[in-house]
């Protein structure tokens, strides 16, 4: 995607070089002056600076990239990875929740049920999508679609991208915690393969309510955590400005998540982040989904459920002042 005008603080040196490159290219085209050597030199500087910036990101910088307003969302990936997507609406109990989208689609020639958490691109769309924070009816819609998938033997693919479930009064009145708990319980015993990919923010139970899967993957500039860094900072340091410190302490970056076996794979992104090349990012995700579904489909239902159970039973590593890492 070309529109990457939104610039994070740590990206500013890179943006300055890119502006210089665009100016030189414009001058070359308008004046017919050969500045190819200067252009080549700046392009080399840009590639070197990209490598330096994006291979040494802090946990907080990855959080910022996961929230980039130009980052591809669930519908962007669904459009590029699947065909014949048929969105279905409503939980058949209360209402439609636009913060979660989903329906049957084809992954090449394979029918799947794809479900994703969806943010908005502008104020109007964000109000419609509730800023990507699902209400209980969203989780109940997701479960309705998963149950439909199980009925027809369709694998389930979920895209995770939410700061957390909506904590408003209405959501509490309609039992958002119960809706998430039911999803966790039912996904643990769903008799079809489930693959989940964290494509942006993976916040708290709001993410987990759609991520109890056989294989959980995360893109390299995302996070998956029990709480947001701002929420953690407010609790521990009584100051949301301590979010960068909290991000380091939470150890929720893809590298740590892979080390702790919370996720099964970290998917690389195009240089500079997924927002710089939607097509390339989608290609990488599609290849990972196809590979994992092919492996999971070879397993019997009993083996699939047994391995899913064992995957979550072994989660939980911690350390204290007296012992080394202990597994739960």
Q: What does this protein look like?
A:
- This protein has 328 residues and is of the alpha/beta class.
- It folds into 2 domains: 9-56; 63-318, 2-enoyl-CoA Hydratase, Chain A, domain 1 (Alpha-Beta Complex).
- It is built from 14 helices and 9 strands.
- Strands 1, 2, 3, 4, 5, 6 and 7 form a 7-stranded mixed sheet that branches.
- The longest helix has 20 residues, at 12-31.
- The model has no long low-confidence stretch (mean pLDDT 90).
What does the secondary structure layout of this molecule look like, with pairings?
Layout: H1 12-31, H2 36-54, H3 59-66, H4 74-81, E1 100-107, E2 110-117, H5 123-129, H6 136-151, E3 156-162, H7 169-173, H8 176-188, E4 194-203, H9 204-208, E5 215-219, E6 223-225, H10 229-236, H11 243-250, H12 254-259, E7 265-267, H13 278-297, H14 301-313, E8 317-318, E9 326-327
Parallel strand pairs: 2-3, 3-4, 4-5, 4-6, 5-7
Antiparallel strand pairs: 1-2, 8-9
Helix pairs in contact: 1-2, 3-11, 4-13, 6-8, 10-11
Entry summary:
This protein has 328 residues and is of the alpha/beta class. It is 48% helix and 15% strand.
CATH architecture of the largest domain: Alpha-Beta Complex
For the biggest sheet, the summary is: 7 strands, mixed
Taking pLDDT < 50 over at least 5 consecutive residues as the criterion, the unreliable ranges are none
Rounded mean pLDDT is 90
Report the CATH C-level class of the largest domain.
Answer: Alpha Beta
Radius of gyration using CA atoms only? 21 Å
Order of helices and strands: HHHHEEHHEHHEHEEHHHEHHEE
How many β-strands, per DSSP?
Answer: 9
When the domains are counted, the total is 2
**Shape category:** globular
Q: Per DSSP, what share of the residues sits in E-state strands of 2 or more residues? A: 5-15%
End-to-end Cα distance: 44 Å
